[in-house]
Amino acid sequence: MMMEEIDLHDRQRGGVPQGATSVTISDPEAKPSKMASDPMGTGGPPADDEGNGTLSRAATAIGNFMSTLERGGGQKEEERIIYLNDPIKNSQSKYLHNSISTAKYNLVTFLPKFLAEQFSRYANLFFLFTGIIQQIGDLSPTSKFGTLVPLGIVLFASGVKEVVEDTKRHRQDAEVNARFVKCLKGSEFVPKRWREVQVGDIVRIENGEFFPADLILLSSSEPDALCYIETSNLDGETNLKIRQGLTETADVLTPEAVARLHGLIKSEQPNNSLYTYEGLLRLGNKSIPLDPQQLLLRGAQLRNTRWVYAIVVFTGHETKLMRNATAAPIKRTKVERMVNTQIIFLFLILLAMAVFCSIGALVRQLNNPFEKTLLLYTSNAWAMFPQNILTYIILFNNLIPLSLIVTMEAVKFVLGGLINTDLDMYHEESDTHAVARTSSLVEELGQVDYIFSDKTGTLTRNIMEFKMASIGGVAYADVVPEDKKIRVDEKGHEVGYYDFKQLLEHKKTHANAPLIREFVTLLAVCHTVIPEVDEEDPSNIIYQASSPDEAALVKGAQQLGGFFHTRRPKSVTIKLDGRDLEYEVLNVNEFNSTRKRMSLLVRTPEGKIKLYIKGADTVILERLAKEGNGYVEQTCGHLEEYATEGLRTLCIAYRDISNEEYAKWAGIYEKAATTINNRQDELDKAAEMIEKDLILIGATAIEDKLQDGVPDTIATLALAGIKIWVLTGDRQETAINIGYSCKLLNLETSLIVCNESTHFETKEFLEKKLLAVKAGLGMGAPMRRTTWFDRLLGKKERRFDKDAEVDLEPLALIIDGRTLDFALEDDIKFTFLELATLCKAVVCCRVSPLQKALVVKLVRKNVDESVTLAIGDGANDVGMIQAAHVGIGISGQEGLQAARSADFAIAQFRFLRKLLLIHGGWAYARMSKLILYSYYKNITLYLIQLWFAIDNGFSGQTLFETWSSVSSYNVLWAVAQPIAIGIFDQYVSARMLDRYPQMYNLGQRSIFYNHKVFFSWLVNSFYHSAMVYYLWRAVVWSSGGAIMGDGRVADNWSIGEMVYATDLVVIGWKAALTVDIWVKFTWVAIVGSVLLFLVLFPIYAIIGPLIKLSPELFGINQAMFGNAVFWLGLLLFPIAANLRDFTWKYAKRTYFPKSYHIIQEVQKYNIPDYRPRMEWFRKAVHKVRMIQRLKRQRGFAFSQNESGQAGLIRAYDTTRRKPRG
């Protein structure tokens, strides 16, 4: 379970209230001292500034470790002691094994968990109660096992389905547990299965391998024990992150050296915080602090590093990854919850019928002369009253359809299989198909109101490409569109874009050639990228960057002729125009979210000192020199064009620095770097002093590549009435930029940006904006009034209406993680939610995994009748995936945690379109008809028993034989019709559902299945059952019962089976009127069921009496099938009963058509779609407004770590040979 409520002030202090339930993923900002430099775990070392970096890190880690030991009001928390190279001592602690299980059941828990889940359904509970009272004496008018046997079959079928689905999970677990890793044994590394790995083992992980447990990094093939890891399994990000071992163990580079290590690790206890770790490594008398930079998490993968040595600290279900993989919650769909409610209604109707018939029996027993004077029932008539109620409950028990639950489960299982085998949702590149991991939720896909999506890896690929450049006022592009090619305007000026090939020519011959060379040099030099030689292809250089933006710019420089190939601790070497040029790196002013820029001071090969700088246009343009900048206007125009395309932009500038100015500034910088308090602020002030009087070179544009089809998918889902919220750990500028490029935000959208620093500022801002929006509405907010029925069901007062119609310009709410902390507090959360529900889109930036889950739960609990869907691809998305009604994981990469914890897994976000609009829309419509039809057929049959009870003096006599009629009704004769409807029916085709996404609203508003529709079918059941019974009663009474061919009087069993056969034809006709599409199985199910009865029943009527199972049927064949009256009634009575239904269906479609009726006719007659296209008109109308908004906020291409890179690049020398280990 997720933590329901939490004191957010405690959370900011790093504390959790006593007794709070563990959360799915810990808040990464819960440890400010540890995560200030990297709050979202994007990798990179902590903020080690030159001078006192190591000492500062040590002091911080020791302080945090001591605070861990002292938590809990001064009580010492037990730490985990792990001995190096001492398996005997480690085994005494009996640490958990490394085998994992993500399955729902095991041999011990299957029966209790399965039965608890099954009997949480009221129908199964009712039939268990009925089956028990059937065993009491002579209460039952039917067989004692007439209910328990079918119930057992239903439970068995459900159990088989659960076992099949859970076996897949067990098989996946077995594959993971059987992987091999090299473990130290003596002085050599030997293969060992993952499940056999123990705490304290020292392992060797090689390039491309996954970490089998949580490890502490000792050493690696890289300098200073650095290594690169990919955490896409954890957070969905494919950019590599850097981890660094301790200096004290960095020189342990051989198996023999590792085997000589002796000491111990004092570690924190296992917990679920992915982004924190505290511990101490003791070697001899020396204690060295451990922090998250040494932690390698299970599920991450070693990349571009030949090997690492590491020691196991947490195994199996104690690893941080598995601590986040909470048990899958039991989810109930909106339709299932309504079924449960309606089963209560049916039970009350059944109870009313039982009481009515019992009162009738009591009146008869008290007043009938025969029973009063001869049978003397008067004395015990009152005592028999309760028994009569139970008898009638048994008699009418099938009013609640026993087969409904198992039919629903079977149909859902097949619908899940259709999702699994849909080739339209198969991703060929990754060889991944869609997977319905939990088929129980298929119809919920057709009723989704809110989608909560991660950004990185879900909407975007996290792959950056260098697309465009503006240099000296001239625009260049990798690929130039036809409408952007160079042309001469009416003023005689060249306008448009050159391509990159022409740029290379311009670098030699154009008037801007010196500026172009400066531009290329800046891109190749001003960065913190580390070049790695590809071992398989030495001519290939792999760039290791803290962000994909950085790597894209360096690759862009290479494309333009500036090849960066060597980094040394104090210099970088590039190849420009065939010459190797070495630039001495003097100082690095790092990027952070306040500065929005980074700069590098270098000494050129000519001995000059230059400042190279790149950053957001807002901060670069205001620092330009007053003279010498003749390209500002043209560059700004290009920036607006790039932003219109959804590209991420940077401005590029430089400045020449004199030796005297640099010497003076270097002293200021050195003093700032050695400051103890507020070091980062002092460094920022020092950078501000040198980053002035800049000369603008131009701008770059990078495309953050979206997943294929994302913009169209989001636009289509928005047309379907689904509101999309993006919950991302990215910065605000990046998230807004992606919002525009993926069509979540459009030209008409007004942004409400909420970045407040205190509780009261947040409250004031949200309340002010809400009042302004309400004023624009001119009506009340979408608050739903709480009725007496809601209060009876225990619903809270504050409920918001998801279907409220608001006539308002499109709004989008943008809120950052810190402000969201305040917005989720009790006194603000409803204001925040009310404002958010009025917006077309919501973007939450820099949010933690816990915040993602809390936002989903806020909407789920407080927006009335809403259905939420969460989609993500990393372990940080598991919380919201499990908190939502439907969880979808993006798969396609091995072992993705989100996909394994989700209800459905798809390879690409674009597949969500078909999954919801088509599979979801069909599943909802099919399940609605299946449920209503199942109710209808059962109520129609068993209400006949009520009409018969009135005629038989409420004696409790049944009209139908038990085994051939009552027990076999839902198993044999009336089982195929609902299955055919549930699997094959299509109210419109897939093409129509995709063309008209507005029809998805039918599911959102529960048009096909709601209480009104349920009661209309219920009334129809009463009507049909009365028609069938009383038409036959009229025939029998009019002839005095002499309806046999030879004039004999028919007995009640003969009449009962004639009524029963007629009922089968009536429900067959009703099924024919219900289905929208006829396939072969539909014909077999509807027509074949009646024919099957007419063939098999006569055979059973012969065999049943012989084996003394059904003696009532002796001689019935001649009475029924040899009787012309029976065949005439079988032909005419069903038509008479269904004539009203046919007439109403005709009138409704002709005079009161619904939207889907019209679409059905469009489909039937292939009518062309003449809807006007307004896209170009809207673009023209809102062009000015768009440009004004783009000037206010433009995404810039920085998503790297905010600090720590300067110290890292000083440690690297790519010319050194790496150890082989």
UniProtKB/TrEMBL annotation:
Residues 1-53 are annotated as: Disordered. It catalyses: ATP + H2O + phospholipidSide 1 = ADP + phosphate + phospholipidSide 2; a 1,2-diacyl-sn-glycero-3-phosphoethanolamine(out) + ATP + H2O = a 1,2-diacyl-sn-glycero-3-phosphoethanolamine(in) + ADP + phosphate + H(+). Its EC number is 7.6.2.1. Mg(2+) binds at D454, T456, D873, D877. It comes from the Eukaryota. ATP binds at D454, K455, T456, E550, F591, K614, R648, T728, G729, D730, R846, K852, N876, D877. GO terms for biological process: endocytic recycling; phospholipid translocation; post-Golgi vesicle-mediated transport. Keywords: ATP-binding, Magnesium, Membrane, Metal-binding, Nucleotide-binding, Translocase, Transmembrane, Transmembrane helix. Residues 177-240 form the P-type ATPase A domain. The active site is at D454 (4-aspartylphosphate intermediate). Its cofactor is Mg(2+). GO terms for cellular component: plasma membrane; trans-Golgi network. The keyword Transmembrane applies. Belongs to the cation transport ATPase (P-type) (TC 3.A.3) family. Type IV subfamily. This is Phospholipid-transporting ATPase. It comes from Spizellomyces punctatus (strain DAOM BR117).
